[in-house]
Description:
Largest interface: A-B, 20 and 18 residues
Radius of gyration of chain A: 26 Å
Signal peptide (chain B): 1-22
InterPro entries (chain A): UCP029505
Helix content of chain A: 25-40%
Strand order of the largest sheet of chain B: 4-3-6-7
Organism (chain B): Pseudomonas peradeniyensis
Keywords (chain B): Signal
Structural class of chain A: alpha+beta
Protein name (chain B): Secreted protein
Oligomer: heterodimer
Amino acid sequence: MSQTDTLPPSGLKQLWLKWRFHLNILLILVPLGFMPKYFADASLFRGDSGLGANIVENIQVGRWTLDLAELRDEAPRAEGPAGYFKAFNAACTSCDEGVKATYLRVGKPRSLRAAGTIFFGAPARMGTSLPIPPRTRPDADIWITIEGWDGKMYQASVPLAKASPATAAWLEKQGGNK
Amino acid sequence: MKQLMRRLALPLLALAATPALAHNPMCECTEHGEQITCKGGFSDGSGAPGVTLDVIGYDEQVLVASKLGDDSTLTFKRPEGEFYVLFDAGPGHVVEVDHADIGAP
């Protein structure tokens, strides 16, 4: 009968066998590091931390006034083949009467059909994703168009540099190269 | 077999979770001689057969009123003067392509 002696594990192996159990604790700590971002996002999307960044207040559009804010103070995001987009939020507490739809566009709309992207959600907090043509001039305006149930168009504009300084800076930097 | 199933379970589940895709309208127009071909679609890769595509002059006169074919494209003769192409998939889901942005592929 042969006897096999088990060799004592090497130093490194011993360390691993002794401490591998404690990796559990690391796995619990990793998500904790993401918690602040998670709660900040949750509060932003719920509206607890306000409408967004760089709020432009009391924009008069027809007989309504609304507040406009970018969701985050950052440059437009590339969203695949459709190009660059910037998320905006708007609040219009007086819009519950007479407003059919609210649109947002870079530059003055040519017609109601081409009024831009449409705002979704309740008037007190609605959001939209605005396409930013890469060749937009940094001094461009963004136009808010309200389509009333009376069939008329009501418009107002805000300088893009005021509504989203990060977008204006991004346009300045890429200088229409894209 | 059971062992294999266990090992594959997590990768398979991870693959099954398809990421949410944006559904933004897009439209590209290219010029072939006198003809312009526009192709519409959505950023999640789906086509846009039957969606309205109008060619409108700067004076808001509709020059070509049509719909995209089964292959999501429409070919038309380049109109005189200044115009833009309007891909219209419903209110707020439009893409404008200016005539100055239409060139040879």
